[in-house]
Amino acid sequence: MGLAITSGILADFIENEPEGYQAYKVIFENINNILAKNNIEPHQEPETLDRAPLHSGGFPYVFLHFLKRFAAHVWENRDNENWDWTPTPFPIDDEPGKDPILEEHYSYLSSHLLTHSDAEGFYLPVELPEVLFDTDENPVPGAMIGSSYDLLSELKSLIKFLNIQLNEDDIISNLPEINQKIQDKGDFWVETLVCATLLDAAKFSILNKTAILFH
């Protein structure tokens, strides 16, 4: 099994999974309790959509580590004003999750991409002051709640280094080239796959006011 990414979970489950629908209603109540404690307006997860819910992902959980490592290196060089920096492939035997620069950026707890479970959790189409955490009274799968807006912004800071092009509506405009790169397993193909997948999810979430769910 790999990572599944869904946006529009209530609209999906209200028709197809009544028990799952009720379970997620409780989770969204817990999320709204956490938002209220942080003086943030509640999120109203849609129960109907004028399009099909988004279902994507399917790649191994570890693929997220590749993108997170890549992001940490991009941001580290940006912060150090290394404007001429260009990414070079990492050694094939390196474990991305144990990269020292990534571990340092994990410690900041500031990135919505990095400060999130690899296997479960939520991004909300809500502006958040920071990544939020669940509580014993209001548990949420994955424990951390991110913002789809911040996720999209962080992903957009990576695209030029992955040769992903977006149009004015934040839709990938060079998809055939991206698909060929992934098919050929070119440099940074894993990072490109994950980034493109999350870009689509963040865009869908913001447009339809639906949470992104990792599961």
Counting structural domains, the number is 1
Mean pLDDT: 97
Largest sheet: 6 strands, mixed
Helix content: 40-55%
Any overview of this molecule?
The chain is α+β, with helices and mostly antiparallel strands and 215 residues long. The chain has one domain. The protein has 8 helices and 6 strands; from the N terminus they run βααβααβββααααβ. Strands 2-1-6-3-5-4 form a 6-stranded mixed sheet, with helices on both faces. The longest helix is centred in the N-terminal third of the chain and has 20 residues. The N and C termini lie close together (10 Å).
Short structural description:
It contains eight helices and six strands. It has helices at 9-16, 18-37, 62-79, 100-108, 148-156, 159-162, 175-184, 189-208, and strands spanning 4-7, 54-57, 121-124, 132-133, 144-147, 212-214.
Which helices and strands, and how do they pair?
Blueprint lengths: L3 E4 L1 H8 L1 H20 L16 E4 L4 H18 L20 H9 L12 E4 L7 E2 L10 E4 H9 L2 H4 L12 H10 L4 H20 L3 E3 L1
Parallel strand pairs: 3-5
Antiparallel strand pairs: 1-2, 1-6, 3-6, 4-5
Helix pairs in contact: 1-2, 3-8, 5-8, 7-8
Q: What key attributes describe this structure?
A:
215 residues; alpha+beta
